[in-house]
């Protein structure tokens, strides 16, 4: 067995301090443009939806506005749906899948649901194609009171007035080959622990809430996405990324306990999508389509079962 080479920043076995974080940050290069890729698309949606700036990230000398897209026909008696993307900025289809949903499908829910979409929670990381923010913090482990991550704190403030009225929350993510080549080794180095290689699943999967599982809801999303792209199989241990597969393409995490974005509301229906963009069997278009299909299936299931409960 080959021993992984030490991560090039820090001393093995010792957590990073401010000096190591500064070195790491200096190596993060802008590779794409949030304004051109994301904000320009959001601007085209202003004629049909309410667009608001719900916060601003300040990482000197950079400053990034954070945008939310909201149903124009918002009615307090309607169920609320929350869609989040780009919590991890490098997960491209999370951002563009959320925007594609708004562009192509959101109008179908007018008068049926209030939609709140935050398509790019982490624009600094989007530009640098990274998982962390500029302070080497993972926003998707930082959704808790007094969050140290600007991205997480801003989104929680946005959602706070609606958090107990949200019926479905779908958080759009990707699992990539770079998780094993860069991000998990960097995490181990940052925390001063040994890096243990894992296995990247080939295909789409979902993360349910282990505290409040909704297997029928998860399966409805899997069934819809399977028409667009392939579903990840379990590995030889019956797991996906180290977690037991509880149904085809579904694993579970304790969402709120882990500080994950999908745990920030009391929604009865919540899930995290995981697209695999590095698969030879998936194109970027399929990845975006899979995210949009997942959102539609999640909303359709939630609305149908809400109607059944009220009937």
How are the SSEs ordered, and which strands pair?
Blueprint: H1 18-26, H2 34-44, E1 50-59, E2 62-70, E3 80-85, H3 92-104, E4 114-118, H4 123-128, H5 150-159, E5 166-174, H6 178-191, E6 205-209, H7 215-225, E7 239-240, E8 243-244, E9 250-253, E10 269-275, H8 284-310
Parallel strand pairs: 3-4, 3-5, 5-10, 6-9
Antiparallel strand pairs: 1-2, 2-4, 6-10, 7-8
Helix pairs in contact: 3-8, 7-8
Question: How would you describe this structure to a colleague?
Answer:
InterPro entries: AstE_AspA_cat, Peptidase_M14. The protein is an alpha/beta fold and 311 residues long. The protein has a single domain (18-310), classed as Aminopeptidase, CATH 3.40.630. Helices cover 32% and strands 19% of the residues. It has eight helices and ten strands. The chain has an eight-stranded mixed sheet with strand order 1-2-4-3-5-10-6-9, with helices on both faces. Helix 3 packs across helix 8 and helix 7 (215-225) runs antiparallel to helix 8. The protein is globular, with a radius of gyration of 19 Å. The N and C termini lie far apart (60 Å). The mean pLDDT is 96.
Give a quick set of tags describing it.
32% helix; AstE_AspA_cat; alpha/beta; 8 helices; 311 residues; 10 strands; Aminopeptidase
Largest sheet: 8 strands, mixed
Run of helices and strands: HHEEEHEHHEHEHEEEEH
Structural class: alpha/beta
DSSP helical segment count = 8
Q: How confident is the prediction overall: mean pLDDT?
A: 96
Which ranges are low-confidence, i.e. pLDDT below 50, for 5 or more consecutive residues?
Answer: none
Pfam families: AstE_AspA_cat
InterPro entries: AstE_AspA_cat (IPR055438), Peptidase_M14 (IPR000834)
Protein name: Peptidase
Organism: Rhodanobacter panaciterrae
